[in-house]
Fold each of these.
Amino acid sequence: MNLMSPEALEAALRAIGEERYHILHPFHHMLHGGKLTKGQVQAWALNRYYYQASIPAKDASLIARLPTPELRREWRRRLEDHDGDGVHPGGVERWLALTDGLGLDRDYVVSLKGLLPGTRFAVDAYVQFVRERSLLEAIASSLTEMFSPNIISQRVSGMLRNYDFVTAETLTYFTPRLTQAPQDVAFALSYVKAHADTVEKQEQVLAALRFKCDLLWAQLDALHVAYVEPALPPPGAFRP
Ligand SMILES: O=C(O)c1cc(C(=O)O)c2c(n1)C(=O)C(=O)c1cc(C(=O)O)[nH]c1-2
């Protein structure tokens, strides 16, 4: 690989999303296309809770390694987006409003007892990646958020149209994400474009984004195998 301009690097990052973001996964198509039962949608929300709940842990470990107040302030905003400020609910709390709206017991969701092993391993791999890899790779791994407004729009409009058990209120988690994600991306992308200034670093940021796409994909694979086809939930996992 030759050294790319920052613009060419951004194009290469976007091409990774075109190729492997979870918007292409069959489970996503079934979810927004109205092809799932209520129990299968509950399984999705319950498992995805672990992703939401783990995001602040990965952001906190990233903040700990940022070298300046300016950088830490920028990343701290994400912690507030997810954890809230004690007055306004954050994303984790809003995700529980979603699982409430789908009729799941909150204590059961938070206990993680019904989680698929595949979800646990994929999410834990993200937190560990951010803790152990370089700051540049850790920041680059957040860049799937470049692609999330698209999948969120598709999911929200499709679910509202196709399921009588889903209301706009149930899905309010997603509304703030449509403005928060582009704000997150503006910073992370400009950081990556400025700091990936060698071929080796450019290869690392591209690999970090592929890794992140893969762990999002693996979460939907786990749901598909357990609840759609061949529908074999592992021992102890949530049963609709
Ligand atoms: O709905 C989605 O498909 C989706 C995807 C992603 C993503 O691409 O990582 C995030 C979110 N949602 C999300 O809600 C969110 O808070 C979030 C934080 C992060 C991150 O890596 O820091 N990704 C995502």
Note: Residues 9 and 33 are 34 Å apart (CA to CA).
Amino acid sequence: MITVDTARKHYGDFLALDDVSLEIPRGSLTALLGPSGSGKSTLLRSIAGLEDLDSGTVTIDGRDVTDEPPQRRGIGFVFQHYAAFKHMTVRDNVAFGLSIRKRPKKEIDTKVDGLLEIVGLEGYRARYPAQLSGGQRQRMALARALAVDPQVLLLDEPFGALDAKVRTDLRTWLRRLHDEVHVTTVLVTHDQEEALDVADRIAVLNAGRIEQVGDPETLYDRPANDFVMGFLGSIASMGGQLVRPHDIELVRDREEALARDAEVADSPGVIEATVERVVRLGFEVRVDLRADSGEHFAAQLTRRDADHLHLHRGETVFARAGQRSSVVDRVVLASAAPAGAGRLADEAVRQAAIA
Ligand SMILES: Nc1ncnc2c1ncn2[C@@H]1O[C@H](COP(=O)(O)OP(=O)(O)OP(=O)(O)O)[C@@H](O)[C@H]1O
């Protein structure tokens, strides 16, 4: 388990971490999710020991590591731009942390072969980094980080520089790897889909603070505030309340809409609206609407529901939030934690210092 307690960090006058407290359970895959500049990397680097905190503590498995250098924290770190040693083969890059610890060659070979198998690079042992694809290089980076049996694996946008398809493949692969290796993993990402897909817990950051921590389902269905609701999925403002476009039901008949709406707690009510546009998006259909109040919002329907309604521009419909809608749950605590290359070669040396 990693415990960050009231971590505070300034860069000059700028407050990057504002008394952040967070518990990361042992063996979990936790995502730090938030917009650019929210402090995700700063928090991750503080756990790694790559940033010094102004105040607050970091504990890993019960050991206070706040004043320990990175190499004594028992961590493996993978950066977005992995700076491999270009003159070394894949085998030697992965073996680096073990070689500098002077482990016997036989032990190193066994370990490296095992890791290359786990990351799917068995046949690439003798290649050089320049002979790998971006995705393969990041997998090599993960193997190198795992080589020294870290207690904690810290990943800073590890797939950020890769194209969308490779990114999606690698996150599925990361999830499988984590199920196999079970090392406590913290993943920084600004991509909500990536976080929802791979993490078992998500901490949402905003302006140096944690807005909410929880499992993906809770954050999506019961966000603690409008920020979390908006950051984890699309939103529409209907009757002054935030709803997910796919939670909006459209009905042609006012009485039917009112009767159905009576069954829904915390409903924003039934909104009379005019259809402005009907857009087919593959399987789904987006209906752009204008309420009587002038408010614009969009509902997302399945094609079947849209076909059934047979909507056209200028027609009147009655919109309401469906029964199991995502709504902001203001009772949820904002934080689940307890109180209280510049030059690439230099970068490689710095990264290797952690290994
Ligand atoms: N070394 C530094 N010196 C000065 N300001 C910094 C430094 N590192 C980060 N910052 C600032 O601190 C804030 C948080 O940065 P951080 O990298 O933690 O954000 P982030 O959420 O990881 O963003 P991104 O997704 O863009 O990487 C940003 O406003 C950034 O400009």
Note: Residues 332-350 have pLDDT under 50 and may be disordered.
